[in-house]
Amino acid sequence: MKKQMIIILLLAMQVALYAQPRFDGSIFKPRQPKGVNALQILYDARNKDLEFSDEVQAALYVYENFEWKRHLLPMEKNTDGLWTASLAVTPQVAFVAVKFFQGDINQPDVFDNNEGKGYGVALADAKGNAKAGAYLGEASFQVPGISTGGLYGYYAEEPKPLAKSDLETLAANEMRLSGQQYLKFFESYMKLQELVLGDAFPAYATKTLQTYLADKNLDEDALGDLYQYTKFRLKDEQLAAAIETRIGKEFPKGTTARFVAYNNTKGSSPDRAEAIASYEDFLHRFPIAEWRKQPNKQGFIYYAVYRGLGSSYFDAKQFDKFVALYDDIDFRTGNELMRWNIMRAYMFKLVGQDTLYQVAEAILPKLIARKDDGSYLSDFDDKAMADANRMKQLDDRLFTHISLLNDLKKYKEARTYFYELSDDGKYSNAELNEINLQVLEGLDDRKQILPLLEMSARQNAMTPRMFDTLHAIYLAQHNREAAGYEDYLSSLKSNEQKAEMKAYVDQHWVNHPMPDFRLEDAGGSFVTPADWKGKIVVVDFWATWCRPCIMAFPGMQLLVDKYAKDDSVAVYMVGTMQTGDYKGKSVNFVHGEGYRFNLLHDAVNPATNEQDFVFRQLVPLFGDSSIPRKIVVKDGRVRYCSGGYSGSPSKLMDELSLAIETLKSEN
Questions:
Q1: Which segments constitute the Thioredoxin domain (predicted)?
Q2: What is the C-alpha to C-alpha distance for residues 7 and 654, in angstroms, rounded to an integer?
Q3: In this structure, what CATH number is given to the domain that contains residue 556?
Q4: pLDDT at 467
Q5: H/E stretch holding 320
Q6: Residues 650 and 563 in one domain
Q7: Does residue 237 fall inside a structural domain?
Q8: What is the pTM of this model?
Q9: Is 561 exposed, middle or buried (0-12, 13-18, 19+ CB in 10 A)?
Q10: 84: exposed, middle or buried (C-beta count within 10 Å: 0-12, 13-18, 19+)?
């Protein structure tokens, strides 16, 4: 498709004369335009990596107002075989660089940046004089570490450093040219001087800062920039304290004073009372209600302060104060406080359930009421993604509370919260579906049980107990006749869902030799490849310390039960990467939970003394050493491999069943 050429006016260009730059400016035409001449890019791809590309693009990097920005330019091929484009720049642009590429700029198929030396040009004004920023732009183009802004992605690897004498000349020229604007380029300039001065830099930086601070007319933003540099980069506590005092006197309620006060909170203090007092003092001095009248980019401060204060209240069991915070905070902050404190306390039994219920019941309605406040929008570029994340977060908080209510047998309240779940969240979580089954049973609401089970089956989010209940209902409705049950079950799943499962399985076929092995089972006997001859064998690598592995056990039990009478299929659970009495750990856990598995213990690697001998040999196939990891073996070769756990026992069973049946159908 023919691309539109972008025509722009450019003031002029001037290559620094003090030394020969290592970058190439010959692609820019004319080489030294005057006044308002246009600047064009003429790129000859012949004898270069992009020679045979039919779609060359240009990534344009401009140094504007002492900051790098990146734009993408389309290019056209002219009759001479050159790729061309014209540049759009503003009078504030002091340096221009370009990188040519094909494909996605973030992961280009091919690119040309002059073999790491760069294509660039420094600009001048209409009279041919260097523009403010030209020297610093040139320095930062060749030494990206001093850059401010988006020079990201220009180089594949760090360029060779410039000589200190060249850096010193660039620094001196920029200060001579732009010294009065020092606050605009302060940080980049100081990074440049740090490279030039080495060990002498701290003394220079302190003296320079003192000189700047002698100006009695510095505004709040300037003082804030100097404070942050002094405090966090130079780490001069004495000078930072002096700037802090000046900020407090001249701008006591300003944004910089707010940042300083936040920086002085004691969230990391081992004394919880001290941390709480510091957070409370901050909110007293800078109430969130005042910030909301004129919000700026300091919302992160209140997010951090309320998180720290809320967690401190919770850990100190000051639950009334914890609850009171929800009168002020937005959905994003309230969600994080509930996630970290309520969910963690529920999972690890840190607080009694009755107390936890009182706290959660007080805050959850407030969180639900703020679900549409838009507070998550700042975390995402796309509103749809922000909304989806917000719904997922609220579903997770509701899951925890419904689980707690079910434990306390508060079934009526639990059922009420079920209706607050999103449409996607109502039936997509197998564990929550089983809890809702228990709630309906507790309410003796038999009419709602079958719809719940059928909707859960449609979402393929079923547990073994749910299958048992559905099967029992089917038998009761069909005079105890099981014929037709499997067809009924299959009919609950949509064709789209079946197609998605097939697509997932098709992505995970492999063909890899199974390592030789001799693995001990729970009874002390040994299993070898000879025992698998003529069988399709599913292997689940797991460990007692792996929570996703344990969560997948119900799905593996469904698979075991499904093929229990099929002599051509075997399922083994192989414990791996465990320590201590790994045999006892595995056997006691599985038997204690009532699972009916064929257990095997991975052998100890003689080279490392780690219990991962078979698993480690398969890591090249897996690509990483994470578990759970499922493989399906046939005729001595691994034919299927997938990792992780989706959260649905029925989905896991269907996945592995489809792999088994596909392998069965082979000749």
A1: 508-665
A2: 58
A3: 3.40.30.10
A4: 94
A5: helix 319-324
A6: yes
A7: no
A8: 0.77
A9: middle
A10: middle
412 and 548 fall within a common domain? no
Written in H, E and C, the secondary structure of 165-221 is: HHHHHHHHHHHHHHHHHHHHHHHHHHHHHHHHHHHHHHHHHHHHHHHHHCCCCCCHH
Helix (H, G, I), strand (E, B) or coil at 83: strand
Structural domain contains residue 315: yes
The whole domain housing 437 covers 430-493
Residues 293 and 370 in one domain: yes
Rounded CA separation 482/451 (Å)? 20
Q: Are residues 658 and 510 in the same domain?
A: yes
- When computed from its CA atoms, the radius of gyration of the chain, rounded to whole angstroms, is 33
Helix (H) / strand (E) containing 120? strand 119-122
Distance, CA of 302 to CA of 639 (rounded, Å): 52
* Per-residue confidence band for 8, with pLDDT thresholds at 50, 70 and 90: very low
Q: How far is CA 271 from the centre of its chain?
A: 32
- In this structure, the answer to whether residues 586 and 474 fall within a common structural domain is no
* Closest alpha carbon to 646 in 518, 508, 489: 508
Looking at the structure, tell me whether residues 452 and 404 fall in a common domain: no
Give the tens place of pLDDT for each residue, 554-575.
Answer: 999 999 999 999 999 999 999 9
- pLDDT(4) > 80: no
- Any domain includes 423: no
Based on the fold, state whether residues 376 and 451 are members of the same structural domain: no
The mean pLDDT of 189-196, rounded to a whole number, is 94
* Boundary (domain end) residue, out of 444, 459, 493: 493
Last residue of a domain, one of 141, 176, 211: 176
Q: Is residue 325 included in any domain, yes or no? A: yes
Rounded to an integer, what distance in angstroms lies between the CA atom of residue 483 and that of residue 487? 9
Encode pLDDT of 585-612 as tens digits.
Answer: 999 999 999 999 999 999 999 999 999 9
Q: Which ranges of 338-429 does DSSP label H, i.e. alpha helix? A: 344-348, 353-369, 383-407, 411-418
Same domain, 489 and 506: no
Write the CB contacts of 381 (distance below 8 Å, at least 6 apart in sequence): none
Short-list 195, 314, 300, CA closest to 258: 300
Tokens, residue 23: 């970058």
Number of domains in the chain: 4
- Paired tokens of 406: 């079910």
Tell me: the pLDDT tens digits for 151-183? 878 998 888 888 999 999 999 999 999 988 888
Residues in the chain: 667
Residue type, 238: Q
